[in-house]
Structure formats: structure tokens, C-alpha cells
Write a structure and sequence with these properties.
- Two copies of one chain form a homodimer.
- Chain A is an alpha+beta fold.
- Chain A is 33% helix and 31% strand.
- In chain A, a hairpin with a 5-residue loop joins strand 1 and strand 2.
- The first copy, chain A, is globular.
- The interface between A and B is large, with 84 and 83 residues.
- Strand 6 of chain A pairs antiparallel with strand 4 of chain B.
Chain lengths: 147, 147
């Protein structure tokens, strides 16, 4: 499903993780990442939510960051995505985390309308930044870490 | 310094964390969050980087997410921010993480120019979303989690 979602997001070539990577990180101690799957009555997998704990210095607590939310085409429009989001919201409330966060592609209008309908805010004043690949190695090469 | 940065970001009223929250989460086992401080030759604290491990399903690994990067006014323009970023980049490279990520406020032109200069990309196609407060509790209230 990770690959199906990346394909939908027009980024399949960016997926380098294998099943073994995911297995190792889901079942590490402590886990690097958590997942919920939604199962249809006939046992087929309808969708998934992959998430991890992030942190806010303003709140001084963990929060839940939703890395991937995916509903398979056969099951769309049946409330599966909402059910997965409600499950994560309940985890937040149970544990005293005040934020459930994720990123959305700007062209994904149907997703954005859905997120607005459940009370999510688009944090359009914040822009994600990333250093990766050669730029990351170049940056790292300028210092020996003692951290 | 968390409060000084929030003040600069015009969001001081959003800081509800106390020193005790930060102490507890920095020194938890495993820690919820990590920090580096930059110290001047005379022992004064010049700046800090607060960061945690996030995760990518595309890479199948942890990455470093930089929650707060802050340099005190007296020490700006002296390369402290770059030194902190290079330290985190070196942690990424040492551990095989291919991404160092953070968010920037869209009006913070000086920060954005600096990040561009070290090879960071602005991921302007991704928009952060958040459910918080009453909306989060409302969403959670619609299901009993079994996750």
C-alpha cells in the first residue's frame, strides 16, 4: 500500500524502502513507526494509516504525525479514511497529545476538502524544507560531529 | 530559548510547555526529543537545535526533523546556525538517514535565503495540516479506539 500511495502521489520512483525495511522498523523496540490497517468484512485490506510520534517544543509533548493515509480504490467513499483518522485522534486524546498532523500535496483537492470537513487547518504559513542526498553529505562534510 | 524563538515567530502565547515538560521529555528513556546547544568561548549559550527522529515510508528509515533552530541576537551572523545544521547533517550521514527536515515560516525571508544557500529545498508542493483542540476531541469522540 505504501507503493500504491506513492504511485497515486506521482512519486513511485522515490520509494526505495522494501518490505524488509518496513518490517524491521515497525517491529523494532521501540518501534520507529506504527501502523493501523482497515479491514473489510471479507478480510481484504481496505486501507492503512502509518504514523509516528513527533514532538512540539511549544506543547512539551509528543504528538501524532500521520506519514501515510491510504484507502484502496475499491473502498473509497465508504468512510475508511475518516475511520482511520478518528482512530488516531482518539490515540492523541487518550495520551494527552494536542496535535494530529500530516502533509498534503497542494494539488490533491479532494483530500484537502475532506480534511477541511473534519476540522483540520491547512498551515499554509509554514513551508517544509529538506536537505537530502548530495547536499546533505556536503553539509555534513564540513564538520566532525561530537553530538 | 524555546520562548525566545516563539516570540520571534510571533507565537509566544502558543507556548504552554514549561521547563519541567522539556526536562522530562529530553531525559525520558527513550528521549522524546534531543537537543544541541552552541556555546560561545565565554560560556554563554549562543543558540540551540531541538530535534527528533521522524520516519519516511519511502525510505524505510528514520530521518532527523529539526523542531527548533535558534540563535540568540548577540550571536547572529557568526555561523552558529550553520554549525548546528552541519552537526545534524553529520548525524544523518553517520546513521544512514537521507533527510534532514524542518518547517520555516513563509515570511522569514532571511532564514529562507540562508537555507537555500546550504542546499535545502523548499517543499512548496506539500502543505502541513493539523487537527488540534476542540476539533481533535470532536474527531476522537466519534469512535472508541481499539488500536
Amino acid at each position: 500500500m505504501v507503493r500504491e500511495l506513492a504511485d497515486y502521489e506521482r512519486a513511485l520512483t522515490e520509494v526505495v524502502a522494501t518490505e524488509e525495511h518496513l518490517r524491521r522498523t515497525l517491529f523494532a523496540e521501540p518501534p520507529a513507526v506504527f501502523g493501523h490497517v482497515a479491514e473489510a468484512a471479507d478480510g481484504r485490506l481496505a486501507g492503512m494509516a502509518v504514523w509516528f510520534l513527533n514532538y512540539s517544543t511549544w506543547l512539551g509533548t509528543h504528538n501524532v504525525y500521520l506519514e501515510d493515509l491510504y484507502v484502496r480504490p475499491d473502498f473509497r467513499g465508504a468512510g475508511v479514511g475518516g475511520q482511520l483518522l478518528r482512530t488516531l485522534a482518539a490515540i492523541c486524546v487518550d495520551r494527552g497529545y494536542d496535535r494530529l498532523e500530516w502533509w498534503v500535496l497542494d494539488w490533491n483537492e479532494s483530500a484537502r476538502a475532506f480534511y477541511a470537513s473534519i476540522g483540520a487547518q491547512a498551515l499554509t504559513e509554514w513551508i517544509p524544507y529538506r536537505v537530502t542526498g548530495a547536499a546533505l553529505r556536503r553539509l555534513a562534510g564540513e564538520v566532525v560531529t561530537s553530538g
